[in-house]
């Protein structure tokens, strides 16, 4: 089969542009020929009809005339007989009285004596001698008694308008005895039909073949009797035989009608009398119908001709336009092909195939470049001419045709498309992903296909990375946030429930803080594996961040079922994890939210499961909780507080209060502790206990800690600037700050920025923060100490650190927790314990500060125990910097009662 070439289209359209006018001209010629032939036939038929009518009328007229004359013949025979036998002069008058000749047509009935004078008469009188009149002489000289018909002679001028019927009268010896004369109104012989019956310009005539008789009646009813005004051709040669019909054409004169009109003339010669009956019908009137027919058919044919020629013109124009478009399309195709041949893009020109209703059912490749054919594993020769439905397979082809159809409708379409695995002709596709651009060009599409397989695969890879947690291999938060809406829509459509389990590992932070990130990471991996082992394959798990996981259960039947899964997870996490020969007990808390009960969207459900998890954790770790709106309120406060803390950092709403530390014996102000206060514009002063835990857990303690370092240094500089005698200030540094690192740098920068000597700054770190051998913290503390900054162990006695450990860490000051101070004087053990600490610390080169000294008794005991410094309400409460400046100036803070 030869495949249609794109280049034949313009030729076909050009051929059509010539064909349409040629066909139209042919059709016009055929139409006109038919019209003329049919008009001629109609003309002939009308003429034949006129001939037939003229002949029939002539025959009927002849019969009428013969009957009329026969009547006259009979009357005159009777009269002749009566006269010849009676010779009664009053005969005619008597007969008239008796009712004969009463018809108005009988103008006169007379007997003319042999002397030529009127012998008897009815209707007219004449004195003249008629013996010289032609009719008289003829009867006298001819013994025939036959009826003679003629026009009245000049002598009988009064009988003008009548026809004379005369008959010879004989004596008994057959001698001439006069002439019987009957004058009948000429109109009597033309009253055969009413004048208009024969049609316009028709003529009825009675002509004597042996006499001068000539009566005519035209269509207006006018009767003419003399030869001069006669319309009939003068030449009787026109009706030479007994009967006939002929067309007397429009030639006035001897052979034509007097008015020059053409007429169809039919005639009949009467056999019994010497007369000829003639009927002439107007040729023009006979052809009126044929003329009208011709005019109508000429009009219709003209209209048809105009319509045909116009249609042909339009069709030709459209074909020419189509030819132009096809040529342009060819040019575009060539241009595209030339442009793309050297490039990497595949190029195709496709033309739509339509069904009878004009619907597009398929597309044919009418052109392509080699690269385009290569994508389909074919050569250009093989691909050009193929149908899209053939070289793309099944669903892919239906999809492609739909896309092409849409592009035909809108003019443009662009898409990235995953190519099917194999081409329709069992060829192997050489492209996996294509970027397709479709542009409508004329009645077709120009398609460019760009191989974007590499880019797409890269994108897929990136998407995988973006959606996967690199540590555990589980889907990550990003993936989960995209997945949940789809899962919810599916569940809603199928009337199923969805449960979200928010899992937080209980003691993970401690393990991570104390054993380092490496251990933390391995623990998380192990936790992920353990979590997966507790779930069905249809359940989805994601690592949501840090030590948080989310499980999505769908479908599920009851809350109990979900609770069982949560319980199973908790139990699984209750077993310690073994990492590097060491057991780590972490546990898990689970919060559950259920769709649609606890939220209709992913964000709400996640938030509510998180709230439920916190609620559970607050009530004791290692539990699961279903979401309850009441939990939300507590957590909303937490969320609000966090938001406010952020604003506080931003707006610098923090200030430092200072609490002095004094020499136990002399009461001299030796140093002070900086304590953070949050001065909220609306809520007033907020104590650290209320916000430090949240700042710690949310990580906000890091920026807050930086503020404290900066403000403490700034205050020292300000006092110095103000000429106040300054004493060292200790600041609290959170373990979170150490874990993040950079405390040394922050301290050095702040000291440098404010021009403060490092000896004036001291760092307090809680005992619990130093638990475990964390290399990072040890290194950071050593570096801080190297700056010249002293290190305090805060809240000593609450943790489990040994003194030797503290010594190894080169701590300078030990601050004994106020719970031990409170025991002084209350129990013997308290005092003994305190004494042990003091003596051991001194042995290790550390100074001892007693926290929370509230009464003189405690002070007295501490003096005896050899405690270096005291801090507490007994000396002074924490106070603003201005108040502290006064104490610095005062220097000795014990009043008389407390003085040693
Ligand atoms: N009952 C009683 N209490 C006394 C007495 N003398 C002092 N105190 C209180 O004991 C706390 C001493 O601070 P801390 O043990 O370091 O405990 C601090 C410290 O751990 C933390 N904190 C305060 N400021 C900061 C800071 O700037 N950074 C960090 N990370 N934590 C801070 O907040 C905790 C509470 O601080 P405050 O509420 O200011 O409470 C202070 C102080 O007001 C006394 O005689 N009796």
From TrEMBL:
Where the record annotates domain GGDEF, the positions are 496-629
Residues of the EAL domain:
638-892
PROSITE patterns for this protein:
EAL (PS50883), GGDEF (PS50887), PROKAR_LIPOPROTEIN (PS51257)
Q: SMART domains in the record, alphabetically?
A: EAL (SM00052), GGDEF (SM00267)
Top-level taxonomy: Bacteria, Pseudomonadati, Pseudomonadota, Betaproteobacteria, Burkholderiales
The protein here is known as EAL domain-containing protein
Record's PANTHER family? BIOFILM ARCHITECTURE MAINTENANCE PROTEIN MBAA, DIGUANYLATE CYCLASE DGCP
- Which Pfam families does the record cross-reference, listed alphabetically? EAL, GGDEF
- Identify the InterPro entries for this entry: Biofilm_reg_signaling, EAL_dom, EAL_sf, GGDEF_dom, Nucleotide_cyclase, PAS-like_dom_sf, Rev_trsase/Diguanyl_cyclase
Recorded source organism is Massilia norwichensis
Gene3D superfamilies, A to Z: 3.30.70.270, EAL domain (3.20.20.450), PAS domain (3.30.450.20)
């Amino acid at each position: 089969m030869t495949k249609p070439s794109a280049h034949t289209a313009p030729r076909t359209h050009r051929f059509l542009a010539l064909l349409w006018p040629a066909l139209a001209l042919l059709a016009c010629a055929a139409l006109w020929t038919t019209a003329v032939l049919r008009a001629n036939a109609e003309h002939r038929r009308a003429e034949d009809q006129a001939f037939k009518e003229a002949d029939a009328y002539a025959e009927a007229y002849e019969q009428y005339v013969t009957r009329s004359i026969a009547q006259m013949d009979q009357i005159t025979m009777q009269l002749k007989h009566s006269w010849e036998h009676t010779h009664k002069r009053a005969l005619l008058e008597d007969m008239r009285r008796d009712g004969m000749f009463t018809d108005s047509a009988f103008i006169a009935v007379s007997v003319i004596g042999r002397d030529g004078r009127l012998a008897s008469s009815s209707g007219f009188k004449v004195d003249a001698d008629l013996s010289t009149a032609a009719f008289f002489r003829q009867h006298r000289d001819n013994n025939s008694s036959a009826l003679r018909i003629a026009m009245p002679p000049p002598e009988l001028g009064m009988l003008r308008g009548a026809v004379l019927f005369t008959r010879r009268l004989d004596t008994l010896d057959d001698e001439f005895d006069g002439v019987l004369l009957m004058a009948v109104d000429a109109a009597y012989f033309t009253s055969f039909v009413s004048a208009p019956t024969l049609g316009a310009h028709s003529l009825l005539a009675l002509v004597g073949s042996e006499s001068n008789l000539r009566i005519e009646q035209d269509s207006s009813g006018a009767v003419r009797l003399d030869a001069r005004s006669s319309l009939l051709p003068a030449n009787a040669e026109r009706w030479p035989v007994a009967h006939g019909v002929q067309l007397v054409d429009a030639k006035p004169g001897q052979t034509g009608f007097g008015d020059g009109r053409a007429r169809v003339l039919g005639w009949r010669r009467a056999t019994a009398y010497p007369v000829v009956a003639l009927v002439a019908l107007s040729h023009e009137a006979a052809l009126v119908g044929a003329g009208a027919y011709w005019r109508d058919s000429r009009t219709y044919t003209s209209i048809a001709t105009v319509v045909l020629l116009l249609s042909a013109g339009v069709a030709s124009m459209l074909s020419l336009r189509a030819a132009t478009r096809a040529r342009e399309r060819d040019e575009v195709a060539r241009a595209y092909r030339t442009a793309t041949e050297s490039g990497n893009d595949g190029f195709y020109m496709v033309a739509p195939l339509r069904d009878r209703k004009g619907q597009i059912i398929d597309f044919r490749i009418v052109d392509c470049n080699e690269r385009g054919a290569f994508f389909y594993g074919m050569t250009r020769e093989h691909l050009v001419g193929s149908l899209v439905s053939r070289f793309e397979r099944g669903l892919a082809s239906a999809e492609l045709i739909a896309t092409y159809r849409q592009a035909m409708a809108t003019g443009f379409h662009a898409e990235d498309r995953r190519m099917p695995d194999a081409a329709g002709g069992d060829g192997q596709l050489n492209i996996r992903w294509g970027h397709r651009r479709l542009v409508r060009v004329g009645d077709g599409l120009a398609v460019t296909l760009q191989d974007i397989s590499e880019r797409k695969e890269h994108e897929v890879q990136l998407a995988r990375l973006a959606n996967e947690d690199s540590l555990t291999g589980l889907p990550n938060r990003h993936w989960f946030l995209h997945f949940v809406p789809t899962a919810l829509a599916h569940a809603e459509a199928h009337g199923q429930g969805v449960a979200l389990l928010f899992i937080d590992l209980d003691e993970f932070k401690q393990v991570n803080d104390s054993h380092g990130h490496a251990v933390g990471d391995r623990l998380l991996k192990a936790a992920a594996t353990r979590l997966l082992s507790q779930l069905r394959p249809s359940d989805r798990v994601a690592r949501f961040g840090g030590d948080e996981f989310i499980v999505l259960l769908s479908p599920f039947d009851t809350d109990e079922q979900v609770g069982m899964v949560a319980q199973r997870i908790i139990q699984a996490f209750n077993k310690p994890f073994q990492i590097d020969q060491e057991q780590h007990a972490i546990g898990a808390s689970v919060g559950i939210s259920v769709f649609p009960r606890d939220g209709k969207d992913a964000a709400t459900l996640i938030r509510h499961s998180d709230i439920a998890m916190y609620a559970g954790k607050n009530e004791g770790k290692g539990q699961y909780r279903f979401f309850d709106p009441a939990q939300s309120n507590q957590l909303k406060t937490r969320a609000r507080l966090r938001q406010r803390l952020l604003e506080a950092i931003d707006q610098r709403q923090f200030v430092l209060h200072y609490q002095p530390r004094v020499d136990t014996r002399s009461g001299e102000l030796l140093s002070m502790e900086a304590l953070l206060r949050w001065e909220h514009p609306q809520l007033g002063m907020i104590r650290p206990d209320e916000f430090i835990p949240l700042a710690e857990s949310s990580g906000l303690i890091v920026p807050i800690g930086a503020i404290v370092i900066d403000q403490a240094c700034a205050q020292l500089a300000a006092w110095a600037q103000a000429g106040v005698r300054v004493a060292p200030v200790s600041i609290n540094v959170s373990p979170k700050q150490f874990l993040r690192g950079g405390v040394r740098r922050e301290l050095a920068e702040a000291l440098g920025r404010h021009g403060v000597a490092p000896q004036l700054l001291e760092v307090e770190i809680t005992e619990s923060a130093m638990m475990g051998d964390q290399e990072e913290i040890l290194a950071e503390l050593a570096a801080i100490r190297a700056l010249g900054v002293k290190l305090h162990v805060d809240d000593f006695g609450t943790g489990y650190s040994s003194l030797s450990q503290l010594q190894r860490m080169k701590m300078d000051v030990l601050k004994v927790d106020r719970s031990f101070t409170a025991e002084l004087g209350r129990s013997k053990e308290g005092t003994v314990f305190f004494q042990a600490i003091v003596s051991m610390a001194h042995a290790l080169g550390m100074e001892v500060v007693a926290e929370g000294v509230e009464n003189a008794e405690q002070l007295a005991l501490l003096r005896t125990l050899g405690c270096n410094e005291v801090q507490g309400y007994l000396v002074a409460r924490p106070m603003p910097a201005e108040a502290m400046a006064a104490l610095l100036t005062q220097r000795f803070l014990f009043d008389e009662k407390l003085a040693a």
